[in-house]
Design a protein that fits this description.
The protein contains 23 helices and 32 strands. It has 765 residues and is of the alpha+beta class.
Length: 765
């Protein structure tokens, strides 16, 4: 008996010992789990909280005294940037417009911006317009408005946010958020027993989930660390992590993180996180410019951004906004008068943003390619870089509109299937080599195959200027008035005989060199190129730029060279820049998220052709526009604007090209079919009208540079190429390189009151 009792006591003692050991082990494991959880909480909160996409900006809009600018264009730009028209300025992001006699007067309160070179503080600017020119600017020498954000380079999960600091948000926003979401935020330690009890009672009365009991700290934990799983274990984990957050970090740090983390909407595949980006998304304005009703709407969206979406469910969104206004009123944040006024307002949201994440997808494609030379994909998607580009949104919008409408019109007029044609356009600034606009599709906002960069097509007669430039460089015997033969030419080769013909199927005998290029004669160009040598012409094409890979075959002389529109633009930029080569660039500067400069993309310049030879070529290319295959451009261009360019058409009219330049802009247009099918379009029918319409809309300057040293003008008889006189019929003023002049003397048929050729007026002015 005693033995049995002893064994029973021993058994109980052993069971208690094991129980204590189990409890101790559980406590130890729990402690380890909490320690590990604590490390996880602190690691993410103190490290890089978010993968911040690179934000890409267009060129800032700059205004200066004397600048030609229509008042309507300035107003449109201000509205694009979210500036509000008001009767009287009261804060940043506003402008006034009024008439003062015959003048238009603007007053602008700029927002300021952290540019790559300096910080521009908010300031007041006053502008006076006389017609379409700024005649007075007060506030400084140069008004530089903040650049338009044109897109981003996003991480895989497509999150975006615009970080804000707690001290920079409107105080009313923070106070309203606490009043609506967590009125005891400053008192609890991460979990509110009172809020949980209140939520449970409300849910019991409602017979379902009517109210949540999560504090702002718990909401942050759920969004920042956990998944959307609904379970008791996840809820317990949320509470523990909330307590740990409150142990290590201040209320201010937690609230600031919440303001930047909370989900507030969706734009396509991109999520809108944080109040900073949400303000731009819904109102196109920064947080500090929002009204009371707009702050109430943003706070109301915290409960359910999709459910209360103001564009899809405006009545529901207004009810939610008004409920928040009521809480603001009850909490003493707004007075009776403010509550009455604000609750009677309609929803003051911007028009729905129907654009894709990146509106200018084709241009951004070029930006990304240039960035990848210096940055890894992870840096671009997570470090919050700010990329300042060369894009001019006004030019880009004009390019997109013109390309789309022109292709549609051509298809209709030529009886082609709708959507059968495609196109590409590149516009760059002469001298700086900055790409101002780029479209690689008739719908260039859609990411996809970018024809401006990747469509390598035969360039046709766009190659011909290289033949004539090679001639000017090779020998002084080749001058603009030099006669060359436009008779049939045949060249034997391993694949048979090459015998090009002119587009009109006619031969034109002996023609001056400038005319052969102006009229795009194939026979004359081929004969000249063979005389110069294929290597000489090919090297000229390659020196023009565009990373051209030129085959040493006769057909190369007439454009059997595959290039992209961007590459062609780079080549023609070399011609426009008087023989100086510069790689085209789309980026001005890259900074980190705090504005510290990281990489500059300076202009690189290399002289590849002498100024005299290029000037002679300019004359011939201007002849293309005034009397040759490009003369139809002046149906859209003003007669006073002198431009140079070249049409290009490939075999069976599969490709329609035009490339040309003014003193300030160079542009290339390609039109064709993706399946390489034939079209009824030559360069002058398809691409030229698009080019002309785009250039007509630019604020550009015509070619008016004086001749370089070593070039002299002589009156020359157009028929014979001999010397002539100013008042002789058929006399033409033609530039010659040093030591060259027309030989002989042509018979002069005196003209008493001649209507001089446009060249005379041009070169005498």
């Amino acid at each position: 008996m005693a033995k049995r009792r002893a064994r029973s006591r021993a058994s109980r003692t052993s069971w208690r010992a094991w129980l204590w050991r189990l409890l101790a082990l559980s406590a130890l494991l729990g402690l380890v789990a909490v320690v590990l959880l604590d490390i996880q909480v602190r690691s993410k909160f103190e490290g890089r909280k978010w993968a911040l996409p690179a934000h890409v900006y267009a060129r800032p809009f700059e205004v200066y005294e004397g600048m030609p600018l229509a008042p309507a264009r300035l107003e449109a730009q201000l509205k694009t940037l979210g500036y509000q028209p008001v009767a009287t300025l009261s804060g940043p992001g506003q402008f006034e417009r009024r008439r003062l006699g015959a003048q238009t007067v603007f007053a602008i309160n700029s927002r300021g911006f952290e540019f790559w070179d300096q910080a521009e503080p908010p300031a007041r600017w006053d502008l006076t317009f006389s017609g379409d020119q700024i005649t007075r600017l007060t506030g400084g020498n140069l008004l530089r408005l903040e650049p338009e954000k044109i897109g981003g380079i996003y991480p895989a999960h497509q999150e975006d946010r615009q970080l804000v600091r707690l001290q920079d948000i409107p105080p009313l926003l923070g106070e309203t958020l606490l009043a609506v979401e967590d009125k005891h935020f400053l008192d609890h330690q991460g979990v509110s027993i009172r809020a949980i009890g209140r939520a449970l009672w409300a849910n019991v009365k409602a017979g379902g989930v009517a109210q949540g009991g999560s504090t702002i700290t718990q909401q942050l934990v759920k969004n920042f660390y956990l998944t959307n799983e609904r379970s008791l274990s996840r809820k317990g984990m949320e509470a523990i992590m909330a307590l740990l957050l409150e142990v290590h970090y201040s209320k201010a740090e937690i609230l600031e993180t919440y303001l930047n983390e909370v989900y507030l909407g969706q734009q396509g595949a991109k999520s809108i996180n944080g109040f900073g980006l949400a303000s731009q998304h819904y109102f196109r304005r920064p947080l500090n410019e929002l009204g009371i009703d707009q702050i109430a709407l943003l706070v109301g969206l915290v409960k359910g951004a999709s459910y209360y979406n103001p564009w899809r469910s405006p009545a529901r969104a207004k009810d939610r906004r008004d409920l928040v206004l009521g809480i603001m009123h009850e909490s003493g944040l707004i007075n009776d008068r403010q509550y009455k006024i604000e609750s009677q307002r309609p929803l003051r949201v911007a028009a729905p943003n129907q654009e894709p994440i990146t509106r200018y997808a084709n241009f951004l494609d070029l930006v990304k390619r240039q960035l990848r030379r210096d940055y890894s994909a992870d840096d671009l998607q997570s470090e919050g870089l700010r990329v300042f580009t060369t894009l001019e949104t006004g030019v880009q919008n004009q390019v997109e509109t013109t390309l789309a409408s022109s292709l549609k019109r051509v298809e209709r007029d030529r009886g082609l299937a709708a959507g059968s044609l495609q196109g590409a356009v590149v516009v760059a600034r002469v001298g700086s080599a900055e790409v101002l606009a780029l479209a690689g599709d008739r719908t260039p906002s859609l990411a996809g195959f970018n024809r401006a960069l990747d469509a390598r097509r035969p360039i046709g007669s766009l190659a011909k200027p290289a033949v004539y430039l090679a001639a000017f460089e090779q020998s002084p015997a080749y001058q603009l008035a030099t006669r060359i033969s436009d008779e049939p030419v045949r060249v034997a080769g391993p694949d048979g005989e090459w015998a090009p013909t002119n587009y009109d199927r006619e031969s034109h005998g002996q023609v001056p060199l400038y005319q052969a290029l102006a009229q795009s004669y194939n026979q004359a160009t081929a004969r000249l190129g063979m005389q110069l040598g294929l290597n000489q012409v090919a090297r000229t094409l390659e020196r023009m730029g565009g990373e051209a890979r030129v085959p040493r075959v006769p057909a190369m002389l007439l454009g059997a060279v595959d290039m992209s529109p961007l590459a062609v633009t780079e080549q023609y930029h070399t011609l426009a820049a008087d023989g100086f080569y510069s790689p085209l660039r789309a980026i001005l500067e890259v900074t980190d998220q705090r504005g510290k400069p990281l990489s500059r993309y300076p202009l690189a310049v290399e002289q590849r052709f002498d100024a005299q030879s290029v000037f002679l070529l300019h004359y011939a290319l201007r002849s293309v526009m005034r009397e040759g295959t490009g003369k139809a451009a002046y149906r859209q261009l003003p007669a006073s604007l002198d431009v140079a360019g070249k049409t290009g058409t490939t075999n069976d009219q599969r490709d329609s090209w035009f490339a040309g330049f003014s003193a300030e802009h160079v542009a290339t247009v390609w039109v064709g079919r993706d399946d390489n099918g034939t079209t009824p379009l030559t360069g002058s029918i398809g691409a030229l009208p698009i080019w002309s319409e785009i250039v007509a809309g630019l604020d550009t300057r015509g070619l008016d540079a004086p001749p370089p040293a070593g070039v002299t003008y002589y009156w020359t008889d157009e028929r014979s190429g001999q010397a002539s006189g100013e008042n002789c019929r058929f006399a033409r003023l033609i530039p010659y390189s040093y030591g060259q002049a027309p030989s002989g003397k042509a018979d002069c048929e005196w003209v008493q009151n001649p209507l001089m050729h446009w060249w005379k007026k041009l070169w005498q002015d």
